[in-house]
Amino acid sequence: MAREIKLGNRMVGDGHPAYVIAEVGINHNGYLDIAKKIIDAAVHAGADAVKFQKRTPDVATPLEQQNQMRETPWGYITYLDYRHKVEFNEEQYGEIDRYCRERKIDWMVSVWDEGSVDFMESFDTPAYKISSASLTDHKLLKHVRRTGRPMIISSGMSTMDQIRRGVDAIGEDNLMIMHCTSTYPCEPEELNLKMIETLRQGFPNIPIGYSGHEVGLVPSAIAVALGACSVERHITLDRAMWGSDQAASVEPQGFERLVKYIRVTEAALGDGVKKVYESEKPSLMKLRRVNGED
Length: 294
Description:
Elements: E1 4-7, E2 10-13, E3 19-25, H1 32-45, E4 49-54, H2 57-60, H3 63-66, E5 69-72, E6 75-78, H4 79-85, H5 90-103, E7 106-111, H6 114-120, E8 128-130, H7 138-145, E9 151-154, H8 160-170, E10 175-180, H9 195-202, E11 208-212, H10 218-225, E12 230-234, H11 252-269, H12 281-287
């Protein structure tokens, strides 16, 4: 079985270029014009897809948190009211769908509840993402699986046993697993990039990607060198903007460098077969004094 998955028009997996996902999340703060500017930045950077988050706030917000008060750009309001403020409706997602088609970039969402899955079925997105927080919600996983769309599951704050149980609940077909540490931002010591190889060994038929929340770009390129077939990073217009994910996000110029680093890494990996390159031959003729076998 090939370790690959089809997302839109792209094959993703071993032997294919890394699929770069620009995670908009809720960094748009509920404003469609900001979302479009972030989409533009992702397109300019060379990302393959942008990703949003879809929740039914009254269902996905834990009861004990709904009435907690917090300072927001809309004043001192409850957490539930805040969740409604940053949630796009069908008309707004319709405009995102239209705009992404116009800009020729894939878009998808992380779905947090079954109602959000049903809501999103009116759009033809290439996959559904399951956040790390929902990995143990097997009822949600199975509901998504019934749509027949490819699934991407994140593995942050989870044990290997919990990952296996999640995979067992939905099967290995049409599935990608993202290594992830759910700390925003994440210190290098907790990125644990060697887990990419651990997951590759543990799930030999499933493409393994990397969802990063670190500050900086280098670890994401290293993840590709270690076998990640997809890289997801949060994107924002300005890390100083209000919002919980902004500090772990990458600004437009940084995202452009990130994609370049990933593509250079892919080119530099080569095929592992030792050869004398044509570009080496002038140096060979000029510098080697002894030619032959011992």
